[in-house]
Amino acid sequence: MDKGIFLSKIEYMMKKLIDGQVILTAIDEDKGATGMTVAWGFFGNMWNEPFFIAAVRPYRYTINAIHEAGTFSVNFFDDGHQDALNYFGSVSGYDEDKFAKGLIHYSVTKDRYAVIDEAKIVLNCRIITTNQIEAFHLDSAYIRKHYQQDNGYHAMIYGRIDEMMIRDHLKV
Fold first, then answer.
1. How many domains does the chain have?
2. What is the tens place of the pLDDT at every residue in 42-72?
3. DSSP letters along 6-59, please?
């Protein structure tokens, strides 16, 4: 991966993350690809390598596929896909195959990443480690604001970014 190009796209990717225009995907060996809309995560430098750290609640269907595959993709969208983003953020993969609805489509790469065809930028990440947010270590104001309803403390999944795909035919 070209780190210079990666750094030149950080502002775009961060804005899309904050705006909730990102879908994490992974391959589920039984069902094919699965995914979920995300708005929380981090870009970083760990062990002198580029990382994306995904925050995923433990009860989400997608977390199981991410752990089984050992990889995940971070798909960044431009405007025009809000229906898909809303759907992938509100419907559970336990209940249905979200891609079957046809709002967005995916391809599987030779390295077994589920890449969304309509995404402008895709980061393909390999899991290096994970950790769990624990209530004991979390400021009580954040517990009240973000976890009071279900105590679904996020797992933090550290994905080393192995590949960055930029769709040239889509303006970034």
1. 1
2. 999 999 999 999 998 887 888 899 999 999 9
3. HHHHHHHHHHHHHTT-EEEEEEETTTEEEEEEE--EEEEEETTEEEEEEEE-TT
